[in-house]
Design brief:
This protein is an alpha/beta fold. It is built from seven helices and eight strands; from the N terminus they run E-E-E-H-E-H-H-E-H-E-E-H-E-H-H. The protein has a single domain, classed as Alpha/Beta hydrolase fold, catalytic domain (Rossmann fold, 3-Layer(aba) Sandwich). An eight-stranded mixed β-sheet has the order 1-2-4-3-5-6-7-8, with helices on both faces. It comes from Psophia crepitans.
Length: 245
């Protein structure tokens, strides 16, 4: 978790021993992990990774979970070949690393991925989810791409100055009560801005007692007291996608 020497809360946590059910493909200038359900479908969800990148087993597990619920899932490398952050990296250099990977400057990658889903996968109903860094990216994309019919932003950092309310389609925001980097007053401010200005459906939900990354980080068998909230977060995410896609 975050502390003074680690400015980002995305501690690697419990890394799944997980190989994934999908395959890696080339999508124009980037690589991506893709998983498809057995039955044909025109529904697809873009999964946006956290700072640890598109190959993190935890994130691929979430993509496969979406596929188990009937969606084509794609987890592209939104860092476009640049190195993902590693837990062993020097956290004093994190700010410099992060500046070269702006989650709001991913339109080139998003364009390529959406084109791939439409032309190569036959997808017509599109959504997006993202974790931490990817949660910020979801917020950006949901204000930019009208073809994304539903978005779920999981513990994406908010700034007081952020333009947050011009969402084009329904968006669900998941936060943890005990997140070291996203204070609850920022979540409250987000809610106030959305309530005042947002013209589409949205929901902001805070999960009691949870820390940053709880939906895709923790192993239920190691943290039994968190299991109900982990399951609730995942179920809420799926239900939101099911409702609007």
């Amino acid at each position: 978790m975050a502390n003074e020497s680690r400015p980002c809360p995305c501690g690697i946590g419990d890394r799944f021993d997980y190989e994934g059910c999908g395959q890696e493909v080339q999508v124009e200038h980037i690589k991506a992990y893709v998983c498809k359900p057995p039955a044909s479908t025109d529904k697809a969800v873009v999964v946006i990774h956290d700072i640890f990148g598109w190959q993190l087993p935890n994130t691929r597990y979430m993509a496969d979970m979406l596929t188990a619920n009937g969606y084509i899932a794609i987890c592209p490398d939104f860092f476009a070949g640049r190195e993902a952050w590693k837990p062993s990296d020097d956290w004093s250099k994190f700010d410099d690393w992060r500046k070269s990977r702006d989650p709001r400057k991913i339109n080139k990658e998003a364009d390529a991925v959406l084109k791939y889903l439409k032309e190569q996968c036959g997808a017509k109903k599109l959504g997006v989810i993202g974790f931490c860094w990817g949660g910020v990216a979801v917020h950006h994309l949901m204000m930019t791409y009208p073809e994304l019919k539903a978005g779920v932003s999981l513990y994406g950092l908010i700034k007081d100055s952020d333009d947050t309310s011009n969402l084009l389609n329904p968006t669900f925001f998941i936060f943890a009560e005990k997140d070291d980097v996203i204070p609850l007053h920022q979540v409250t401010l987000l809610e106030q801005k959305l309530k005042k200005n947002c013209k589409v459906d949205y929901e902001v939900k805070i999960y009691p007692g949870q820390t940053h990354g709880f939906v895709h980080r923790k192993r239920e068998d190691i943290n039994p007291q968190d299991k109900p909230y982990i399951e609730e977060g995942r179920e809420d995410m799926i239900n939101w996608l099911n409702k609007y896609i």
